Structures are given as C-alpha cells and as structure tokens.
TrEMBL record:
Domain FDX-ACB: start-end pairs: 712-805
Signal peptide (from-to): none
Protein name according to UniProt: Phenylalanine--tRNA ligase beta subunit
Organism placement in taxonomy: Bacteria, Bacillati, Bacillota, Bacilli, Lactobacillales
Principal cellular location given in the protein's record: cytoplasm
Amino acid sequence: MLVSYKWLNEMLDLSQVSAEELADKMSRTGIEVEEVKIPEQGLKKIVVGDVKECVPHPDSDHLSICQVDVGEDELYQIVCGAPNVEAGKKVIVAMPNSRITGNTKIKKGKMRGVVSMGMLCSLDELGYSDSVVPKEFSDGIYIMPEEAIPGEPVFSYLDMDDAIIELSITPNRADALSMRGVAYEVGAIYRQTPSFSSKVLTEDTNEKASDYISAIVENKEDVPNYRVRIIKDITVKPSPVWLQNRLMNEGIRPVNNIVDVTNFVLLLFGQPMHAFDYEKIGSKEIVVRRGQQDEKIVTLDEQERQVTPENIVVTNGQTPIALAGIMGGYDSEITSKTTTVVLEAATFAGVITRKSAKQFGLRSESSSRFEKGINLDTVQEALEYAAAMIAELGDGRVVAGEVVASETKAPETQVAITLSKINRSLGTALTVKEVNDILEALGFEFVETNEAYVVSIPGRRWDISIEADIIEEVARIYGYDNLPSTLPSGEALPGALTTEQALVRTIRESLEGNGVSEAISYALTTETKATQFTVRPEPVVALQSPMSEDHGILRQSLITGLLEDVAYNVARKNTDLALYEIGKVFSLVDGQKLPKETRHLALAMTGLTKQATWQESKVPVDFYVIKGALESIFNTLGLSQAIKFEGTAEFPQMHPGRTAKIMAGDTMLGMVGQIHPLSAKAYDVPETYVAELNLDALLEVESTGIVYQAVSKFPAMSRDMALLVDTTVSNQELIDVIRANGGKFLQDVKLFDIFQGEKLGLNKKSMAYSLTFLNREATLVDEDVTKATDKIQAALVEEFSVEIR
C-alpha cells in the first residue's frame, strides 16, 4: 500500500511530524514501513517550459527544433524527437547540467548538427514507471497544464514533492489498505480524530435508477453486498491534473475521469468499484451468479477467458459482462462515447475471488482487497461518494435512488476484558485512564465498570474479535518500546545436548573427517522416485496443492535426492563426489491421519577417492570405500561387533552382486552398494555407490562401548591361515566362526588376501586371514595359540568344509 503524505495531511494535522518520523512511528506500532520515497529526490534543474516555436529538423524525418521559454531572457533551442511536441504546449524541460532519473546528467550538445540546450522530458525520464504513465503520453513527452508558469520547477505541479510511504500490510490488517484506514491508524498514534471530505450527492428526482436497471444476486453468501447507481449525461474526458497526479503517485495509471474516480475511491475507502457503459450492457438487468460450463468472456485486456462454476460473474441476464471482483468485460467498458454509466459497488466472497484471480492470473488491487476483507459499513457511503464525484467531473446527473440486490452490514462485535488481564499479559501497570485514552484514540466505544471493559468493535476493524486482539491494540498504541523489559523467572539450567543429539553430531564428525560433505535435498519428489531404493514401498504422502508435478510427493528414501545432487555436479564437471544427508522420510501408516516420519542417514560416492600423483596411482570409489565410511561410524559409536553386512539382491534399483544389507541382529538397518547401471542411466550419473540407514533404529542399537586399555606388557602372537572355500561363503560368515572358536586370547582377525583362479577349481576361492592373539596377564606360549588355531580350523571344516592350505 502506497500512502501519500500530502493526502494524509488533508485528513490529519501532521504539520509537526515529518514523513520519516511518521514512518518510524508506524513501524514501531505494528504496520511495517518498507520505505519513504520522495519522487523529486535526485532530480535537479527540471523546470516548466513553454514551446513558442516548433519546426522540423532539416536533416531528420522525426526530430523537431523547438524554441522554448524557460523563464529566462532568451529562448532555449532544444531538439526533440517526441511525436507530440508542438508550439503552444507547456512541457517539462531538463536544463543543461540537470539531473534526470538514474542520476543521468543532461548537457548542452548537438543533434544532427543543431545545438540543443537541454531536453524535453517524458514522465519516464523523471522516474515514473511505464505502467502508471497515461497512455496519451506513453510514447512522447508529458504536456503540462496551461496554468504552469515557465521557469518554475515542475515538481509541485506533478506532486513530486510529496512523500510516498510504502506500507507492508499483513493479511490481518486489511483495514489499512485504504487512506481512511491509515488515517484512523495514524490518528490513534497521535491522538487525533481524522476528518474526511464529503461529497454532496444531488439526485435527479425526475427518474429512478430502477427504471434503468434491475439487479439480482443468486447466492448472497457469494455476494453479501451488491448495489448500483446510474449516472447519465456524462462526458468522458481526462481527469483533472490533481487526480491524475494522486493516482500516479499511488502506482495507478490514469485512464479517464470515470475510471479514475473508481480507482480514487478504491484508495480512499478501500472499496473496489466497477463502471459499465449502460448502452453496452445489452439488457436492463444485472444477474450476479456462478459461471456456467463453456461460458466465455473477453476481459478488459482483450483476452478471451473460459469461466467455470468456480467463478462468480456479473451478467446481463444471459452472458457475462465482468469477472466479479477481478476485471470487467471488454464489451461494456467505458469509452469516450459513453454517456450513461452503471456504477457498481459490491463485496464478493474472498476465497472464491482469490482462487479465480489465481486461475486467470489476474490478481489486482481490487481482488487483493476482496481476498482480505472489505468494510461492510461503508459500501453504500463509498458508492454515493463515487457517484457524486463522477457527476461533478463528468458534468452528469445522478439518477435518483439505487438498486440494491443484496446488503450485509458488519456484525456487532463486543469483546469483554479486564484491566488486570491487560496488565498481566503485557507486564504493565496501566491505569483505567490510560486504557480509556487508548481505546478512545482507536475510536472504539466501550463501557468500563470496576476495571472491567466491554469494547464495541467498529466495522472497519473486522480483525478484532477476542481478548488477545484488544491486548495487542493496547500494546501497539501504548508503544512496544514502552513495555517494561523483564527477565524470565525460574531456575537457569546449563544447556547441553541430549544423548541422541550428541550421537548424531558424532556421526557428522566421523563422516566429515572421512572427507564426506553434507548435502540438503528437497523432501518433495515425484511419485515414481518417492518409493525407489526401498525394499517394501509403503503408501506415499501426496500434497493436496503441489507447486509442480516434480514436487508433489514426500520421499521414502534420501538416495534419490543425493543422486540428483550427484547428477547436478557431474553435469558441471565436478566428478569426484562424497556426499551425505541426514533427513526425514515419510510414509502413511494405516489408521493414522498424519504421516509417519523417520530420520535416515544416506551417503553417495562417485569418481576418485584418491588422485593420481608421481608416487601413487589413482584410486576410484568402490564398494569398500563407502563400506569403510560406514564402518568408521560404527567403530566410533562402539557398534562394530553389533552390526553385520549381508549380501542381497532385494533392492531392484541396486546392483545385485555389489549390494549388502546392514543388519543389527535380525533387524535390517539399511543397505549399501552400487546403484544398478540402469538406475545410473536414468539419473544420468556415472558408477555411483550409495548407502542408507534408518538413523532412528541405528541409535537404538545397544552399544558394546569402546574400552580403553593400557599397552600390554606382554607380546602378541599371530598366525596366518589360508582357507579354500566355496565362492558362496562370505567373509563375514568365516569371521563369525573364527571369533566364536578363537578363545579368550584372540584379539583381532584380518583378511589380507583373496584369490580365485582355474588352479583352485570351479566355484572355489582362497581366503587368507591373519589372527592376533594376546594374553595381558602372562606371556603366551605356542601351545595355547596352536590349541586355539586347531579348534578354529576344525570348526571351519565342519561348518563350511574348508580346505586348510
């Protein structure tokens, strides 16, 4: 909302308050001010000029040489290319060494060999947006009013010396989307009662509005208010300069005296209006109803639009002539030939208006006000004001009476509250007199009995309905900066991480210590991707109103997001990647309204883990690199003995021979492995290895802990053994048997060699292990170690029919 400081001064006495001070005060009482802009700032030496002579340039078919009176002894010769420049017109002149918008300096120069002493300006060159410049001046210079005096600065004629205050209005304060609403707010701040100008409505009693037109509203819930007036014998012409200036400063393009009045009243009352050409309506009735299938309307922007039963339309009884609350119809617009106007003032259902505006991409000043709310008590007053103003500026006559199809007044709202409740909520010690002064400043009627209030809320403040609203109003006007500062009472406790938070931080530190970087991906994806990389996809959680088809379903796996991150980086030549993400996945559970949220940990690696140097060869990422990153986490958490890896082919998007389940006992925590080549192609990524864990389940696994011991005083002994086994036997299975039979002195088991070849036989492999034994209380002897290794070998032969090599 743009607020004119000059206009506000007509309603209140702000002579002792600057625009900047006012903006600061408003920001501190609840309505945020984005900026205060004075249009003339930055402009210099721009004056009124009177074109005395205008002749074509001899060397150009579009330039003119003008002799311009700028209030000095001699005329200034200025070359101008505007098509609308002519002798006898008052214009805007940028003198030599002047500054126009963009801090551009205008110098004396030559154009096609002719000296030019400055420049004739359009409004664009003074900083006005193309969207607010009147169409008659959009392709040329601006013509000043006849009363403008040559040589005087143009700023006062264009109201560029005004201060424009831009307010950021929250949805609950739609009452401030009008000058009258802002005046009430400022009046409360400075303890003033605003005064508003009025228009005397003189009616032509020889005729009645009902003789011209009838109006019907089919559903009063859709259209709580609908009333029209008839103004006849009007002359459509440009609005007075003061009105055009006011609209342009408020960001609205002047059109003509009829349309400009509806926009002026929109700004003044916050009441949207629309004017129809009576002769073009095509009937003597107006019917406001829902749209029908296959109905179409050509709107004022000359676009044909298909309406639906979800839209409200104004019709002539047969066909639509306006999209209610959004835009009028092209066929009934006001033109220079219009002589009789049907002026509409209404309120339309906010939700329907918002959805329709979104449907047609036509959000406007009118629709935004209908969405947020209208003062129901001033619909009739605004209509009368606008009708009188149109008659005044258009030299017309207002036909007696108005046609009312529906009428709804603001509900009588009363809120009861006590002084103690106000003080207790704000931490203040306000007196009855102080609260009375604040309520009077707000313009709220009230009854106070023994420090108990019953406050009557005016129709213009439909945002107030409960105690908390009254408390907020008192706090705003009393001043937030006047509220006492108090520290919270109670015992202060030192902050600390929970056990779970500490474990998650440990996991992050472990991964980042291994060179893995954190990524954050969208939780929303497509329905196809949502259930990928899961063993058993569950019912998905879909948004009712997604931003796009690609972001309509909540994910059930983090891997899909990481693969998109990998693809994004690889496409930009960043090919060596190690990423992790900790986030939530979502699924529907039978019998629950809200989705189940589970925290997961996922990794993705691709490219090289070590670059080639003169000493070493490059090392690509493989299964064991990502498995090692996971094992580092498990070791740090003290879970290395509790978690096992088991080969699997259960995941359809994973490579069946390079994927393992991560198990804690009989519970599957997740998986790790290479994504299937077809999946890699679908995501447009190279060979990539991923892992995903149910982090919530991982944190519940009982840790064996990390036991710190002094270095043993006695030496350790090691034994190597090579086993010839079937290729179907896994390393984990062999290690489990070795540890189960190794006795209490077995400290560590390491696989140091794997070999397969024709010499070993079909479906056979050789696995070589190094076993470390240690007795911390005495020196080990060969007999103890030999006895343990014999027992291990016997168990391996019995369990897997191994051959000891």
